[in-house]
Amino acid sequence: MGDADITASRWRLVEVGRVVLFSAPSPYVGRIATIVEIIDHKRVLVDGPSDDEDKAVPRHAAALANVALTPIVIEKLPRAIGNGALKSAWKAAEVEKKWESGVFAQRRAQSAKRRSLNDFERFKVMRLRKQVRFEEKKALAKIRASA
Question: What's the predicted TM-score (pTM) here?
Answer without folding.
Answer: 0.77
